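Holo prediction — zinc ion.
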Amino acid sequence: MFGVHFLGDGKISIDEIPTPKPNGKNVVVKVTAAGICGTDRHPLLEEGQKTIPGHEIAGKIVEVDKPSWARVGDRVAINCHITCRACEHCLNGDLYFCNQLQVPGYEWDGGFAEYLLIPEDNCHPLLDDISYETGALIVDVLGTAFRAVKRAGLKPGDQVAVWGAGPIGFEAAAVATFLGARVAVFDMNPYRQEMAAKYNHPELILDPTDKDTEAKILDWTSGRGIEVGFECVGNEKAAHQALKMIKKRGILAIIGVSHSLTVDPWEMIQRELTIYASRNFNTHEFNEMVSMIRKGLWAEKVVTHRYPLKDAEKAFEVFLSENCGKIILTGSC
Ligand SMILES: [Zn+2]
Ligand SMILES: [Zn+2]
């Protein structure tokens, strides 16, 4: 089979590698959709990656050895947290907290290939009306955004703002809007502003570098400030901008990955602010997302580009340009 390798410095190769064989409860999945993730940027541009990258995967089970329940032909989305399945966190469905966590694309060969070897317990069966592509969104970009928004406990009519209209921010805005919140979106990139306008229909789309954004948000919220700011960029400036605009007892939800954020505790105390960080979805929430999609959540609108595996080079070029939403590699060469 063919699979992608990140060579570093933004270069990739498509190599012929052995097709995996099923063993025990590990099944072989033919990959039909694999999303390119924001977290792929670092290994792609910097040091490269030894394993096959790709962790936002859906496909069809094509070979099994001694499975408990998986059958050849099952359509599945892959939970990218390979874990012990026995510890407190695994039993609670918070797989990513497991001390024995392995992730396809990092410690395990991932989904930018024609086939994937994966424990059957990591396969979420897909209902017939849920596409592979939507499955690949649920297990990563939608799942991450969904949980972060759910934890905010939004009520219909709440005014919230999302920093970053990339794939995670797009899904956060979509879920918040679906739950009845009124949404403002911040992004500098005209492509992503347009994408948000076209599908998420936020009440405001703002460029965070404009001088009068704070005044606009105050005006929009009748002087109160927003209930929740969802920071989906991974940028300290965005977090600080959000903190300024959050109302008394408001919330800052951090979803974008960064490594520095200084906050003034006194400012937080005065306004009784809450800051929380959110990482990924709980396995029990898979069906909640499926149910929202069936009721009309437009999660799949985030996909703007699709490429067969043989055109992976082009796919990563577009990915790095940021003039895109979610890019899906369709798996077959
Ligand atoms: Zn991801
Ligand atoms: Zn565990």
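READOUT: The chain has ten helices and 15 strands.
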